[in-house]
Amino acid sequence: MNKTKKLTYTAIIAAITTASSTLIYIPLGFAKAFPIQHLANVISAVMLGPAYAVLQAILTSTMRNLLGTGSLFAYPGSIIGALLASILYAKTKNLELTALGEVIGTGILGAMATYPIGILFLGQDATLFGLIPAFTASSFVGALLAYVVLKVLVRNKAIDQVMN
Predict the structure, then answer these.
(1) Which InterPro entries match (predicted)?
(2) What are the structural domains, with CATH classification, of the chain?
């Protein structure tokens, strides 16, 4: 897939993900869990690779923050999740590991990365253990949805048409 096509898909996925953020999210006090972001991360990881998956995560997090539907916690979770999922897919081509990479990257590593943000910007030090279960649950739901969608696309050979 050429760079123009990858960039176009990145923009489309980020736009759809941002638009749906007003409809599907779980409020968690000072943060918002957003399973559609995790679905987008896994799909981007498979279709676009690490650089574009991370770009999609940054674009979506930025647009959600600008629109008031996100929080600062969106950045570390989505970026780390997209990166780990896409690296695992690039190395293994295994959809299960890709989905698991999103859950570990966002749910555990991303939640841990929010700790300094919580301390520095919000004065909240409960973010470390408060967000791990929430981020893990949200990323599990999104990664599971992405896994199902991708399995259907692979079975119907539709993913080959999109990626070529």
Answers:
(1) ThiW
(2) 3-163 (1.10.1760.20)
Q: Tell me which of 1-15, 107-121, 135-149 is least confident.
A: 107-121
Query: Letter for the amino acid at 77?
Result: G
Task: Return the pLDDT at 128.
Answer: 66
Give 27: exposed, middle or buried? Use CB within 10 Å, 0-12, 13-18, 19+.
Answer: exposed
Band the pLDDT of 98: cuts 50, 70, 90: very high
- How far does Cα 109 stand from its chain's mean position? 13
In this prediction the pTM is: 0.90
The closest alpha carbon to 39, from 81, 92, 97, belongs to 81
The Cα 89–Cα 104 span in angstroms is 14
